[in-house]
Amino acid sequence: MLEVQDLHVSYGQVDAVRGVTLTLEPGQIVSVIGPNGAGKTTLLAAAMGLLPSKGGLRFEGQDLHGLDVEARVERGLCLVPEKRELFGELTVQDNLMLGGFPRKLRGAALKRQMDFVCDRFPRLGERRSQRADTLSGGERQMLALGRALMSSPRLLMLDEPSLGLAPLIVQEILAFVRGLRDEGVSILLVEQNARAALDSSDHGYVLETGEIALSGASAELAVDPRVQATYLGGA
Ligand code: ATP
């Protein structure tokens, strides 16, 4: 579904992603774990078209180079950024509506999609008319996910959904993400929380200083001594 082949992304002189090759099959959760500054956010930004990149980048067989962000959303890609990027002064409902904007949802179609998302996240439904900045951290992450779902993505890219959340809330968010996978949405999950990411994904990649250091089935990576020593606290 997503094929990344020898991808390079630079910020001027800084080579942040250096020859990354990665594959995501339909219906999979693929995680990318690695330390601060490894290039995880940069990889997602390049896949979404927010940064220029060199190398192979294909989605459902189609070359993504040359497609802008909007065209990538139309094809079914969606990114939930690390900082959630919600509009705090707008209501939950208005934030969701903005998620439907790239798909040009209006009228009955917009209402249907909004009801669908609020059914999935009852807490968002209850807080529809509340300002986004009154939500808890977990609810904000749910709103960011709900807003992404407004564009009916086929590949959802999540940048550190666990960031700043209590362990129980992280479990709740990841259970939801697995539910989406089971309904056929493919997920590229970037996480510093290696344990949570490997527990929830089918396949994993370890990114270090812009390069893939290790990859494999998540269950195998979770017992790999190198992953255990560096990312799982030697557990
Ligand atoms: P984090 O978890 O901290 O977000 P990350 O794995 O997502 O880390 P990136 O944010 O992709 O890593 O950063 C990769 C490298 O690119 C780092 O060396 C970082 O300093 C550098 N970098 C990131 N953004 C910029 C920028 N706008 N300009 C210059 N260098 C940048």
Element pattern in H and E: EEEHEEHEHHHHEHEHEEHH
Bulk shape: globular
Measured on Cα atoms, how large is the radius of gyration? Answer: 17 Å
How much of the sequence lies in strands comes to 25-35%
Question: Separation of termini?
Answer: 33 Å
* Main sheet attributes: strand count, strand direction, barrel closure: 6 strands, mixed
Total number of strands:
10
Mean pLDDT: 93
Structural category: alpha/beta
Biggest sheet: strand arrangement: 6-7-8-3-9-10
Bound chemical compounds: adenosine-5'-triphosphate
Uncertain regions spanning at least 5 consecutive residues: none
Our count of helices gives: 10
Description:
The structure is a single chain. This protein has 235 residues and is an alpha/beta fold. The protein contains ten helices and ten strands. A hairpin with a 2-residue loop joins β4 and β5. α3 runs parallel beside α6. It is globular, with a radius of gyration of 17 Å.
Itemize the secondary structure elements and their pairings.
Blueprint: E1 2-11, E2 14-24, E3 29-33, H1 40-48, E4 54-59, E5 62-63, H2 69-74, E6 77-80, H3 92-100, H4 107-120, H5 122-126, H6 137-149, E7 155-159, H7 167-182, E8 186-191, H8 194-200, E9 203-208, E10 211-217, H9 218-221, H10 225-231
Parallel strand pairs: 3-8, 3-9, 6-7, 7-8
Antiparallel strand pairs: 1-2, 1-4, 4-5, 9-10
Helix pairs in contact: 3-6
Protein name: ABC transporter ATP-binding protein
Organism: Ramlibacter ginsenosidimutans
GO molecular function: ATP binding; ATP hydrolysis activity; branched-chain amino acid transmembrane transporter activity
